[in-house]
Every structure is written in structure tokens, then in C-alpha cells.
Amino acid sequence: MLAIMQHGLALASMLLALVTLGRLSLRFALNLRFLASAQRLAASATSGRAPRVSVLVPARNEIRGITACVESLLQQTYPDVELIVLDDGSTDGTTEALAALQSRFPALQVMRDADNPPPGWNGKSAACAQLATHATGEWLLFTDADTIHQPTSVASGLAQALGLRVALLSAIPLQQTRSWSERILVSFILDFLPLVGVDLSAMWSGARGRTVANGQYILAHAESYRALGGHASIATALVDDFALAQRFRESGHTVALVNGVSLLSCRMYTSAGEVWNGFTKNLLGALTSTGERPNVLWYPLFAWGYASVFVLPIAYLIIGEQRELAAVALGWLFLLRAATGIYLKRPLDEILTTPLAAWAVMALALSAMVRRWRGRGIEWKGRQYAS
């Protein structure tokens, strides 16, 4: 009887895996069509008056990348760019680097804030809110200090925003990964999962569904941003990019996520510790997209589907249970990862890390949930936040 139950469970899991992979593949194909249409609409956007774009960079202890970031933003082909950087209490040499940049580039505006954010505020949201108050552009480009922008980054991003007629446009950058932990997790979470797990066309059209964004590149219409309260309206959100995009949608504005590989690159983390701490902070908020505690009953159902796709095929291949279906599911998963990797110009050897990445995401999600349920705070960039 036990053997029959195990066989039945294995069959059900592999059938679920194949159905799920079919859905993910269809969603990826539809997302490719939407992303291609965004490029076409950008190409056909009218080239009339060029509205001013304020590029806003919050920087806290960003000595590793701040110089390259600022230099890339000062080389934009777009005719009317205002660049403002906020030095948010840095202690690692960022202040001195910005002073040196200012002496070389008088157009660079540098703000300094040595104070902690107001109680309850996410530090990055507080910094972005301050930057926005000093911006004079009709569009606000919020970007991270560890990004490097191509000369057409502002022009191409604005063209897509105007072509799609959105109030907020976010982009998926080219993620730079060097250490083993980065190569396993960064692209899987920031590239693969959004392309196969989110209906980008539905998000753009305002249909019901998940809202996602990437804080490394968020281009917002300034008037719309201020009308909905700006970053003050998401002051407590740990995952500020998702929260801001959701706030735009709730206010009736159109948002979009596009392919930004040709616009900018970013190296988010440089060590296993940074990868773990950064994604632990972000992952649960990304899954729920709200500040509410998630429904505990949902997790077992999600976990079964997730495990059926990413974990059980390998296990069943090893033990010889439903081996043929498991082989098909695993091969399909690798092909899907390869397709997304080719599209976003990823190293193809990352394909082989897919099972490891999926298992690591489960560990990260468990860590984030336990931390929240236990009421433990989260430390990020030297600041403590309530979970």
C-alpha cells in the first residue's frame, strides 16, 4: 500500500511539474512578445520636445561603484539630464569620492545627509524622497549607485516609457556576477523568475496580477509620482521597488517592466554574505508584494508546485521513480532556463546551477518567514529594520 501511494504521489508530482512548466513556457513566450512590442513602440515614439529627466542616485557606503556609476550617467546622449546624488551618511570613502567627482564635473549635484531616516522609514525610500524634492525634471530616474549605464540609457528608457504611455517604467539590467554565490542566485531571482513567473503584459494593461519592478532602474513621471505621495507613501516598505510600482497601479497609473540589458549593468553583491542578507530581506516581500503577513495555508500548496518543478525531478531520477517523466521535466526546465539566459545575455553555464538556485531560494524564503514570524529585525547597510 505504501509503495502504491509513493508511486501515485510521484506520478502526480511529475504531471504537475509538466503542466507547470508548460504554463511557465507559455508565459515566457507571451512576455517576449510584450517586450518586443515595447521596443517597437519606443522606436515609433514621437521625437518632439525632450522633457528634462532628473537622475537620482541614493548612495550609502558605495565606494566600490560610485565613481563608475556617476561617470556613466554624465555621459548620456539624452540632451537634458539633471544628475543628483545623495550621500546618505557614508563612512567608507563615498563622501570623498563624490567630492572628487564634483571637482571634475561641476554639473553633478551632491546632497549630504548624515542623519538616520525618520522612524519607520526604509533608508533607501527616505533618501529617494529627499532626492525627489530637489529634482526639477518632468521624469525622475531612480537608479542605484552600483549600476553602470550605457550612453543611451536615459534616452532609450524614456522612449519606451513614452511609447508604452506608462507613468512608471522599470527595467531588468544586465546582472554582473563573479563569485559562485552570485552566479547561482542573482540571475535566477532577478532574471529567470520574473520572465517566467509574472505576466508582464497583464501588469502593463492593468489586469489583475502581480506587480514587480527592479529598483536598479525606475523611471517615474514626476507629476504622477508626487500626486500619489512619492516614496512617503511607501515609507515602511522594505522592498521599495515593488511597493512603489504597486502604489502607482493602485492609484490608477500604468506601469511596465522592460528588458534593460542594453541600458545598464549592475553588480548587486560581491560575497555570499551579501547575497544571503540582501535576498533574505527582499524575498518574502517580493512574494507577497504587500506589507501584510502572508496566508500560511498558501505555502504548502506553493511549496508542492515549486518542489515538483525544481526539486523532485532530480530526486526521482536518482531513486528511479517515474524516471521518464522526471527526465522530461528536468530537460524542459534546463531548456527554459537556457532560453531566458540567451535572451538576457547570461553565461550559459548558469543553466546547470538551476537546481541549486531553486533550493537556495527555498532556504532564503524559509529564513525570511522564520525571521518575520519570530519578530526579529533585519539589518541592512548598518541600519536595523523591523521585520
Q: Can you walk through the features of this model?
A:
The chain has 387 residues and is an alpha/beta fold. The protein has 14 helices and twelve strands. The strands form three sheets. Strands 3-2-1-4-8-6-9 form a seven-stranded mixed β-sheet, sandwiched between helices. β11 and β12 form a beta hairpin. The longest helix is centred in the N-terminal third of the chain and has 42 residues. The radius of gyration is 22 Å and the shape is globular. About 2% of the residues have low confidence.
Question: Brief overview, please?
Answer:
With 387 residues, this protein is α/β, with parallel strands linked by helices.
Please write out the topology.
Layout (H helix, E strand, L loop, with lengths): L1 H42 L9 E7 L6 H8 L7 E8 L5 H11 L4 E5 L9 H12 L4 E5 L3 E3 L3 H12 L3 E5 L1 E2 L4 H18 L2 H6 L11 E5 H6 L12 H11 L4 E5 L4 E3 L5 H17 L9 H13 L1 H8 L3 H21 L10 H20 L4 E3 L2 E3 L2
Parallel strand pairs: 1-2, 1-4, 2-3, 6-9, 7-10
Antiparallel strand pairs: 4-8, 5-10, 6-8, 11-12
Kindly report the average pLDDT value.
88
In percent, how much strand structure appears in the residues? 5-15%
Largest sheet geometry: 7 strands, mixed
- Report the uncertain regions: 287-293
Structural class: alpha/beta
Cα-to-Cα separation, first versus last residue: 45 Å
Helix/strand order, N-terminal first: HEHEHEHEEHEEHHEHHEEHHHHHEE
Shape: globular
Gyration radius from CA atoms, angstroms? 22 Å
Key descriptive features of the protein:
387 residues; alpha/beta; 7-stranded mixed beta sheet; 14 helices; 12 strands
